[in-house]
Amino acid sequence: MIHSKYTWKIEDIAEEKAREAAAEFQVSLPLAKMLLKRKITTTGQFDKFFHPDKYQPYDPFLLHDMDKAVERIKTAIAADEKIMIYGDYDADGVTSIAVLYNTLEKLGAKAEFYIPNRFSEGYGPNKEAFQMIKNQGYDLLITVDNGIAALDVMEFAKEIDLDVIVTDHHEKRETLPEAIAVIHPKHPESLYPFQDLAGVGVSYKLSHALLGEEPSELLDLVAVGTVADLVSLTDENRLFVQKGLDVLKESPNLGLQFLAKKAGAKLHEASEETIGFMLAPRLNAVGRLGAADPACELLLAHDDEEADDLAGIIEEANKERRLLVSEITEQATAVVEAESELPGMIIAAQSGWNAGVLGIVASRLVEKFGRPVICLAIDEATGMAKGSGRSVSAFHLYQELDQNRELLEAFGGHPMAAGLTVSLENLPLLKERMIKQAESLSLADLRPSLDIEAKLEPGEADIAFIQMIERMAPFGMDNPKPIFEFEQVHLTGTKQIGADKTHLKTSLQKGEAALDAVGFNIGHLVYELSPAAEVDAVGELSVNEWNNIRKPQLRLIDVSVPHWQLFDVRNRTEWNEVVREPKRDRIFVYFKDDEADALVKSGHAVTKFEELLNADSKNASELVFVDLPHEISQVEQVVRKLNPEKIFFHFGVKESSRMERIPDRAAFANLYALIKKFQPFSVERYRGAMAQKFGWNQEVVDFMSGVFFELDFVKIEDDVIWLAENTEKKKLEDAESYKRKEREIETQQKLLYASYGELLQWMERIMEQ
Asked: Quick one: which of 713, 711, 702 has its CA closest to 741?
């Protein structure tokens, strides 16, 4: 048995409704079902989804205060005022700056940008920066991707006579900042029909309003920021990314060209995954380690040499970021696992951590432990802890932090992610409160879920079907890449791949149909899947092209084996894998004392047969048979008592002590004759001669002499044997030791030489009972 990591959820779509949609949209029934799940129910929505050229963008002046913002900016340009764009250090922030900067430059404005340092200034506006900007002769400041929650800083701006236009998309508070204009898609007085724009989307709408037409040549930047910020890829955001990907493929921003080259990405084949996995992480990297200016300068670069140099700086920063994430994740995991009990929310804080990468670390811990996580870097010099949090869908992280606003120096974010700063003095109370707030989360809330599109058979996942799915791209929030479930398949050719063997390659087999599959970071499953396992698997479909051969392929996300499994580890290599490291829910059962010592020293849970059988209760999902039992029934007794999820048959026996058959009557006669001739007969003295003449090892001699002793044919003392006087005639078979050895050899023959299939059939009968 293998338990799935996620809860798999499938939303049922009424068959009749799907048929009607398929007819209306003139698409296949499976595609119609997928569209209905994405709330696409009308022809207009269908056209908007698949045909961006038919879709007209929304009027930017529907955004509240857009007219005021445009008027103030044009006044500033006409008056030759200096304009400062105040941005953020992530990919959404730097693309927001680049979009507006290009627009202002086109309009002839004197514009510069400012990005606060994550470490010395934190997120969003701050009074010191505003004062410095004012002192440098700026009278107008435009925030992009920040500012909506900075009420006190906006009041300060009024005091120093600095005009501010706020453009943002983050969670707003009940009170909005006082500014020349506040442009936010969720502004209570806004008439804008779409509320989920990214920061770069708001910046683009402002640019549209300023120019009087769309600056569509900037849509590659808009696509990058929108995908990077994980906003809903529906409605206008989908349009931005669809059109932006076209720009990225055909005439991309110079800086993005050089960044893609460093990353090994092919922009002419760009997709949302190119942005999400290759471009955005690199743009984020510099701001995670220090000043984010190089990322913005790259997007504003005008010559190849400058772009190449900046892309090189960013690539090196990304390598450093990856190393830091790996190290801190390992350390944070150790902090969490050192706790005696895992709370409903994890808050890990430590000196020496880099606060810039803690959002990624928190994401890794959420994935590992299935709980909301906040990771904080402690700075003893300032008495502050700064970091990031990531959450689960049932825990609105921004709102939960907002309940503790008085304890925080600063915070901001979304339902699933937030950044915060807290004094070391307030940290214990914050931790106590947040853990208490998370107590309402149930186990179901904490277990991550996967939305499954549909159940498929391996034969249905052909190239035509996958091409149909690809029409639904770009994928992202609210338009997830479809995940399909394959039930009761067998995995064939399963092996570990990759330099460190952490990945898995296999094939899903059902009947005559097969589907290639790969699974990243699940290579360990090779040792958890038995040859007979009927596997339920979920994953994403794609077309794999190799040597001009195109084949369907599944990227495995999760697997489940809903039944018990039998593993044949009689092979030394497979046995070594079983004993490589202790597992909490695994019990090794042995029958002979000398087989257990090495396992005990290695830290395994080892129990003798009799102790296990007599224990009131014993819990273990995995049961390992270390050595050969005396009788086959002993295996059946243990299996019935524990009813394990996994059974491992090793049945190890030392080669020197393996007695494969009982000596024949001639052998007994020869030993009897030797004893009679040389009595008192010393076994030790004649052992070599007996081995050379008859081929007897010590076990054979001990067995035959033991039978003689039990039948009163001989007397034995200190390894010396005499014939007994006046012995009765008895059959060798009457000796209990003879009968016991017969049973042991029968057991040995069955357990050591039976095929896996024979052992499986035997266990199936036992498990059914």
From this structure: 702
Residues in the chain: 769
Q: Is 4 left (phi over 0), alpha (psi -120 to 50) or beta?
A: beta
Please, which residues bridge with residue 181 across strands?
165
Distances in Å between the alpha carbon of 329 and those of 53, 193, 281, 325, 378? 44, 41, 17, 6, 16
pLDDT tens figures, 327-356: 999 999 998 988 878 899 999 999 999 999
DSSP state of 89: S
Beta bridge partners of 411: 420
Q: Which residues pair with 408 in a beta bridge?
A: 422
Q: How many CB atoms lie within 10 A of CB 726?
A: 5
The residue with tokens 């915060």 is 420
Distance CA 681, CA 708 (A): 13
At position 625, the amino acid (one-letter code) is F
User: What is the C-alpha to C-alpha distance for residues 442 and 430, in angstroms, rounded to an integer?
Assistant: 21
Condensed to tens digits (0 to 9), the pLDDT of residues 525-580 reads 998 999 999 999 999 999 998 888 899 999 999 999 999 999 999 988 889 888 88
Exposed/middle/buried for residue 768 (C-beta within 10 Å: 0-12, 13-18, 19+): exposed
Q: What angle do CA 557, 559, 560 make, to 5 degrees?
A: 155
Rounded to the nearest 10 degrees, the angle between the axes of helix 199-211 and helix 219-228 is 160
Nearest-angstrom CA–CA distance, 742 and 752: 15
Peptide linkage before 448 cis (omega within 30 of 0):
no
Question: In the 8-state DSSP scheme, what is residue 724?
Answer: P
What single string gives the DSSP state of each residue in 97-115?
A: HHHHHHHHHHTT-EEEEE-
Q: Given the DSSP bridges, would you call strands 549-560 and 535-546 parallel, antiparallel or unpaired?
A: antiparallel
pLDDT number for residue 359 = 93
H or E segment and range at residue 669: helix 665-678
Scan for tokens 């949090």, then name that residue: 389
Q: At what angle do helices 219-228 and 254-263 cross, to 10 degrees?
A: 50
